Amino acid sequence: xxxxxxxxxxxxxxxxxxxxRRSGKNIGLLLxxxxxxxxxxxxxxxxxxxxxxxxxxxxxxxxxxxQRMIAGRHDLIPGGYLEKIxxxxxxxxxxxRLWGYFFDPAIKANYTLMVPRDRSLGEGEIVVGAGIARxxxxxxxxxxxxxxADSRTFSFRVMDILQxxxxxxxxxxxxxxxxxxxxxxxxxxxxxxxLVLRVRNPKELRTIAEKLTLKLxxxxxxxxxxxxxxxxxxxxxxxxxxxxxxxxxxxxFVIFAWDKASGLSAEERKEIGILKxxxxxxxxxxxxxxxxxxxxxxxxxxxxxxxxxxxxxYASAGLFESxxxxxxxxxxxxxxxxxxxxxxxxxxxxxxxxxxTVATIIPIWRAAITDPDTVMR
Amino acid sequence: MQTIKLEQxxxxxxxxRPNEFCAIHGIDLTIEPHxxxxxxxxxxxxxxxxxxxxxxxxxxxxxxxxxxxxxxSGLPERFMTEIRRKTFGFIxxxxxxxxxxxxxxxxxxxxxxxxPNHAALKQHALQLLDQFGLVSKATLNVEFLxxxxxxxxxxxxxMINDPEILIADEPTANLDTKLSREFMALIQQLVDxxxxxxxxxxxxxxYESPVIDRVVEMRDxxxxxx
Amino acid sequence: MLFSPSxxxxxxxxxxxxxxILMAAAFALQVTLRWDIHSGSERQLQLERRTYxxxxxxxxxxxxxxxxxxxxxYNAEQMSSQFVGAMCATGVLNINEFxxxxxxxxxxxxxxxxxxLMLNYADNRAYDYPLIKIKYGLLLxxxxxxxxxxxxxxxxxxxxxxxxITSCCGSLFTPEGEGVAAEVSGVEPATALYALAGxxxxxLITGGWFLVRGRGAVAxxxxxxxxxxxxxxxxxxxxxxYVYEHPHHHCPFCILKGGHExxxxxxxxxxxxxxxxxxxxxxxxxxxxYPSLQQIIKADSRRYVTAALxxxxxxxxxxxxAVGTSSLTMMEVWW
Lengths: 377, 226, 335
Description:
The complex is a heterotrimer.
Chain A: H1 2-21, H2 23-60, E1 64-70, E2 73-75, E3 77-78, H3 80-85, E4 91-97, E5 99-104, E6 109-114, E7 125-129, H4 130-136, E8 143-147, E9 153-162, H5 167-170, E10 173-176, H6 178-185, E11 191-192, E12 194-199, H7 205-215, E13 219-223, H8 224-262, H9 266-277, H10 282-313, H11 321-325, H12 342-368
Parallel strand pairs in A: 6-10, 7-9
Antiparallel strand pairs in A: 1-2, 1-12, 1-13, 3-11, 4-12, 5-6, 7-10, 8-9
Helix pairs in contact in A: 1-10, 2-8, 2-10, 2-12, 8-12, 10-12
Chain B: E1 4-13, E2 21-31, E3 36-40, H1 47-54, E4 62-67, E5 70-71, H2 77-87, E6 88-91, H3 103-108, H4 118-131, H5 147-159, E7 165-169, H6 177-192, E8 196-201, H7 204-207, E9 214-219, E10 222-225
Parallel strand pairs in B: 3-8, 3-9, 6-7, 7-8
Antiparallel strand pairs in B: 1-2, 1-4, 4-5, 9-10
Chain C: H1 5-34, H2 42-79, H3 89-93, H4 99-123, H5 132-158, H6 169-172, H7 180-186, H8 189-213, H9 217-244, H10 263-284, H11 294-324, H12 331-334
């Protein structure tokens, strides 16, 4: 056992020096390899971060949202429905929500307007998300003016700016009082955008949802878990599509690796001939070459992953930020929480190291079976 | 020490193909231990092919090679290698040192697959380098060596696994007369230490040297005289 | 569902490995048909060199399959959030009829690959390669297994429908249910404990006997394999309960979750490795009758039996630790 490890040490030792001796050739390979890992890892880390952020947002959201449907369209729901629901076992709390979207022609962006429940705001007072503050260039105490649906102008004083770990959701948010909200959008008293229900035991969710549809046939309950599930599969699906698009790149890389591994220079060929002549066995050469691939793979993998990590978590995924989440003018300053997931790393490994290794098996073997007497010819 | 016996050894290259070529036509030869033997003959006479078969670098197409009574010729390559690295040391025509590595590393290289203790191996290599006057060059890369130094490095490398038999293929082909004589003197040292030496050469400096006990002449894949 | 990256990776691995193993099997067939160890011909030399390629391919494929087995379980764990009713891997495997067979085939490939590599390792050190026909014959048998794994796995993943409401460990692993899982969960914890202790002792005795006397490797392998199943049953019927500190939760997968300090991995990995080594020792033992293999197999099987014993011991220690540190006490109820 001890001699086994010692032998591997000797082989690694030789491999390292032989890699350094041919650094020119190997750096090219390392660069391409790192780039492939970097691209795939960036996509993975980024979509995963998005999913995580969404999860964070949803974690705060209520278990059930009840919407009224009229002719298949989402409509305002009367507050009376809260009484109609009455006592349902398992529901801890229920209340109406007021929220909506507003298009600001000044910066051509959509805001989300919302009535907060945990904070009371007075006449003409609002709290804005960091994104709005940035784009409109306002600070605390400044005035924002909007034109309502019936063409009246409303002026609001910014009381506060929302600071949140998850800027992705709060950046386009405006909070205002219930009275102001109703006035601004012209929503009559007693109506809400939707109703929310809090449920403690997740196992009861389905039964409660069924009861709701029976009691209120013109409504649609939306379960948080359902949204979470949809997000989960949408994000992994999206990642998958990107991966398929990148399959071409991976294939090109595999061909490149094959070519590099089989296109040994005359000097390398001679070197293997010498090793075999002086007593290295075919298996020793295969092992030595295995370590070579291992060292290259590990370096490229770590380097690529590290770069992707920095790219996504510290440079806000600058390279494809605008492609993957550019849905609004109010770009949030996206600083996702750093996170590494074992499944991801393993998957990435199978998309990069595994194809590389497979592509080099036959070239390695070809090189290793060089006749030991070649050096004598 | 062991006797090497060749019985009806034949070597055919490119068997079954149009360019089939018989390099060795059935040779019987016995090489006694502690003898210094030279295989002499013009190029193409098959001496290098024969030497590579004796040294377990290649296998005869037919016939038997035994060393101390053990059959070598029927063994798979894997086991031939095992015997080769314990029994034989090799010196090649072009010194065949690995460029970019130091003298010391080149000398230690044949021992890597055997995985000896590193400190002991280094010690042994330095000792050999000392014996052949190279210890001051140990950390130098081999491309900076002169012809004679490279040859001596090759000898050290051949001796690192303490082989019983040293095999040298035209060792003086790239050396001038003075260096050739020096080389033969070094061979004398090894013979005095008890090493069996088998060489090929058509250089009179070699086969007329007093070190040589026996000259085997070859022509067209056959022995001319015993 | 096939678009999830982890699933794509798993399918990619299985497909590549199938291809490689088929290639190796084709080479193996060539080698077997034309093999003549006594020939000094160039063709024989080429065949000998092919054996290196076959060994390398199988070793690499097997390593990939091993990692893929872990990835498969881990992926199933993670996907449980995407299916209604799934709380852990059980639910995800339950989604269609191919889930469990995929897992079983992956396990079978793992054991077959491990045993083959051990056989190959022994044979490669005997100067006349006495097992060449046997081992390559075996490889021809393993190849369909690998291909079957690929096909079943693809069927499984392509039929993953997120709309299906699956049933999870809570309903599968209950004594009241039907089927193997229910039967296993229904085993009395006391019975499971005695069986586990019994099998542990018998493994220890046969292993010790082998190490002292050099005989009985096959018996050891057989008992070790039985011990493997006993251990799995014990995990479901008893050990899991202690891990969850819940007298009715029998799931073999939830113990892999972070909430339980990933203790499942510490239980399963030694158990699987131990069984693989045990099987290897048993499979190579009969071939000691070949003179060139005698010493090699003697040394190898000693090493494998020792490894199997040590790993089995690890399993028992982890299991003992899980039971011992649990705050679940069933003293009056079960015994």
